[in-house]
Structures are given as structure tokens and as C-alpha cells.
Design brief:
The chain is an alpha+beta fold. The protein is built from three helices and four strands; from the N terminus they run αββαβαβ. Strands 3-1-2-4 form a four-stranded mixed β-sheet. It starts with a helix and ends in a 6-residue tail after the last strand.
Length: about 110
């Protein structure tokens, strides 16, 4: 109920609704978590353009493009909750992958 009330409050105040997502680069063995109020497709286009410093080296297009999996983890969130959850997912994944050659990138955050 509390989450639903927060969403209704955000909508009533014309605040954007946020989502949390995960990008997994299987070619480079790297993971990135993010939060956005944009359409997910538009955010992916921004990432592909190199606008995100931490994953600017990822190849989203071209002949040597990386194998990147993108998925929405949660949606319908207010900004503060989305940012906190992205960082929590990041920490959990770091603990899960400790001792492996996988890298979890630091989310810029809000």
C-alpha cells in the first residue's frame, strides 16, 4: 500500500515515474545498474551514444559490438526509491560476483 500511495502522490504532483534496469555486457563480463524516468529504449540509445562515462567503452553497435543484455528490474518508482534500489542491486551483485572476473560498475546515482 505504501508503494502504491507513493506512486499516486508522484503522479498527482506531476513527478516522473522511475524504473531500475540492469545492463549485462557478456563480452566484457561487466554489469551496470541504472535508474531513469525516460522510456527505457531512449535511455539505451543514450548509453549506446557513449553518454555514460562508466560504460562508454562498451560497443553497442558495429562489427565488433559487445553482447549486451538489457532488462528492466523494477518500475513504477519515485526517484529516491529508484536510485536507492539501483545502488542496492549493485552492492548485492558485487557480493555475489566477488572472487570472479566480473566487474560491477558504480552507478552515477541521483
Amino acid at each position: 500500500k505504501a508503494a502504491y500511495a507513493a506512486i499516486l502522490e508522484a503522479v498527482n504532483k506531476n513527478k516522473p515515474i522511475w524504473l531500475v534496469y540492469q545492463l549485462t555486457n557478456k563480452s566484457r563480463r561487466e554489469i551496470y545498474f541504472g535508474a531513469t524516468s525516460q522510456e527505457f529504449r531512449d535511455r539505451l540509445i543514450e548509453h549506446a551514444s557513449g553518454s555514460t562515462k562508466t560504460i562508454k567503452h562498451w560497443q553497442f553497435t558495429g562489427t565488433n559490438k559487445d553482447l549486451i543484455e538489457a532488462k528492466v528490474l523494477l518500475s513504477g518508482l519515485i526517484q529516491e526509491k529508484a536510485s536507492k534500489l539501483a545502488h542496492i542491486f549493485e552492492k548485492i551483485m558485487r557480493m555475489k560476483l566477488k572472487g570472479t572476473d566480473w566487474k560491477v560498475h558504480q552507478t552515477g546515482g541521483i
